[in-house]
Amino acid sequence: MPQARPKRDRLLEGEDPESLRPQDTRHWISVYREMIAFKEDLLQRVTGDLMHVSAAAKTDLNDDITLIDLQLKRYRRRLGYWVQRQLELEEIAIDSKTRTLTYRESSVTLTKREFQILAKLMSRPEKYFSAQQLLVETWHDDRLPEESLRTYISRVRKKLKELDAGAHVVNKSGKGYALIFKVHSG
Fold first, then answer.
1. Residues 108 and 135 occupy one common structural domain
2. Measured between alpha carbons, how far is 57 from 5 in angstroms, rounded to an integer?
3. CB count in 10 Å sphere of residue 72
4. What percent of the chain has pLDDT above 70?
């Protein structure tokens, strides 16, 4: 008899983690992205309400914040699962020894710095990293100019585009850089 899945890892109705269809991974990535965005907005609003309520209401709001935070963590885990599953099904692989990114039958070789940036972004796809975070967490040097980072990000973008693997590095003002997977219909 299969072991029961822990409550915090409940699946949504129709969610099949064993699916072999890339379009299912793209669908669930999209669903979890939207759910995360909604919960983040809700968390921001509830947190903002703390300043304007009585002490008794703060207790209830703190309980809500804890619940929303737990839900967000679960949604992020599920998103991470689906992104990893997409990499598998879409046949995207990265070899750290040769610094080679492979998509199906195509490959590109990355420089050491390009590889370090892509590896960091792939470690948490869909998460935005500020330029400062990338400099510190990737190269362990916050004294490097952001222009250097932008140059390497540009090179990584070109190589991802060359592979046409459905992933790209985006930059959002105030948020930073993230590896985002295109969500295709069908």
1. yes
2. 34
3. 17
4. 93
